[in-house]
Design a protein that fits this description.
Order of helices and strands: HHHHHHHH
Oligomer: single chain
Helix content: over 70%
Number of helices: 8
Structural class: mainly alpha
Low-confidence stretches: none
Largest sheet: none
Mean pLDDT: 85
Distance between the termini: 25 Å
Strand content: under 5%
Length: 179
């Protein structure tokens, strides 16, 4: 149970906050592209933490990913308004997502995917509810009932996606599943 709880604690608030900070610091396009390096981090963390072997294809993908980060992160004349240090926010988010997948894969050695996804989603919900209580202006109160309905639907869909992803992680190595 503990790996799923830790995964539920780390990802919703910390990783999403880093993504939003990246949006602010280096823009949505760069942040989204750099956050797409989660498969790179997943392969490396799976190698280190789970002892999964890397195939030549995975190594090629890692090299290309690192090269892509370098190209995307290169400041251009027209975008001197951001600092290269802003790249750390989406990279940190990608690393947290990779850690979540690693924790899930580890937990799935002894628990079924449905249990793992339910614990992770439930923990995330508790974290988000507690975080929402700490925000002074309560942003959800200003949303319409229709918007809240869509958010509820998105949350349920996300929980279903966790179940599917955890099912895939239970069936195959992390270094293969996440990419």
């Amino acid at each position: 149970v503990l790996p799923f709880v830790i995964a539920g604690l780390a990802v919703p608030v910390l990783s999403r906050t880093l993504i939003f900070m990246g949006f602010e610091k280096i823009g949505v396009a760069r942040t989204t592209s750099i956050n797409g390096t989660t498969p790179f981090f997943s392969a490396v963390v799976a190698l280190l933490a789970l002892g999964e072997a890397l195939t030549p294809r995975a190594v090629t993908g890692i090299v290309l990913t690192v090269a892509g980060i370098a190209v995307i992160s290169e400041p251009h004349k027209e975008t001197k308004s951001w600092k290269l240090s802003g790249v750390l926010f989406p990279l940190g988010s990608a690393l947290l997502f990779a850690i979540r997948y690693t924790l899930a894969r580890y937990g799935l050695f002894t628990s079924p995917a449905l249990v793992g996804s339910a614990i992770t989603s439930g923990t995330s919900l508790v974290v988000l509810l507690l975080a929402g209580r700490l925000i002074p202006h309560r942003p959800l109160r200003s949303l319409s009932a229709r918007a809240l309905g869509f958010l509820l639907g998105a949350g349920l869909s996300y929980t279903g996606a966790y179940w599917c992803m955890f099912g895939a992680l239970a069936s195959e190595k992390l270094a293969v599943t996440v990419p």
